[in-house]
């Protein structure tokens, strides 16, 4: 599997929007229309939080899935329980990816066979490739991949 990270020009490095100009700039690069339409700082900060947690959860899930399937789904389940507010996010992409994560988690709980896990891994890798093409996430360097294991 390919490992990814969230250190890009479009994803915030924390949930701070109001006090962190770099995050604000990244959020406007991520979706200028959405951030302009929010107008209220509290809403913009909530959207920043949704984006931060959603993409970090996706990357963590992808990177852990190759190494330890059980831990990957434990962390995914924990994320889904702790961040239910993303289900009602103003960002449609976050809602969509949150729904995908719910689907993967439920699929694993119902059928944890090798075929099911491979199908989930394939789906996750397709999504990550798509996000990498949009420059939302990026592939980790070769050295990082070797050090990860």
Fold and architecture overview:
The chain is mostly helical and 149 residues long. It is built from seven helices and two strands; from the N terminus they run βααααααβα. It has a two-stranded antiparallel ribbon. α3 runs antiparallel to α4 (69-82) and α3 (41-67) crosses α6 (114-133). The termini are close together.
Keywords summarizing the entry:
globular, 2 strands, two-stranded antiparallel sheet
Write the layout of secondary structure elements.
Layout: E1 4-5, H1 21-30, H2 32-38, H3 41-67, H4 69-82, H5 92-110, H6 114-133, E2 138-139, H7 142-148
Antiparallel strand pairs: 1-2
Helix pairs in contact: 1-2, 3-4, 3-5, 3-6, 4-5
Structural class of the secondary elements? mainly alpha
Q: What is the global morphology? A: globular
DSSP strand (E) fraction?
under 5%
Strand order, largest beta sheet: 1-2
Uncertain ranges: none
Helix content range of the residues, please?
Answer: 55-70%
Average pLDDT figure: 92
Order of helices and strands: EHHHHHHEH
Count of helices? 7
How far is the first residue's CA from the last residue's CA? Answer: 12 Å
């Amino acid at each position: 599997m390919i490992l990814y990270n969230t250190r890009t020009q479009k994803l915030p490095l924390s949930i701070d929007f109001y006090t962190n100009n770099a995050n604000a700039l990244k959020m406007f690069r991520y979706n200028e229309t959405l951030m302009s339409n929010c107008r209220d700082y509290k809403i913009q900060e909530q959207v920043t939080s949704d984006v931060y947690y959603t993409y970090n959860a996706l990357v963590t899930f992808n990177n852990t899935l190759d190494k330890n399937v059980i831990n990957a789904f434990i962390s995914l389940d924990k994320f889904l329980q702790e961040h239910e507010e993303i289900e009602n996010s103003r960002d449609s992409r976050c809602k969509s990816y949150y729904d995908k994560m719910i689907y993967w988690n439920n699929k694993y709980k119902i059928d944890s066979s090798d075929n099911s896990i491979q199908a989930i891994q394939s789906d996750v890798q397709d999504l990550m490739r798509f996000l990498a093409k949009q420059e939302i996430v990026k592939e980790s360097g070769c050295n990082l991949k070797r050090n990860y294991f």
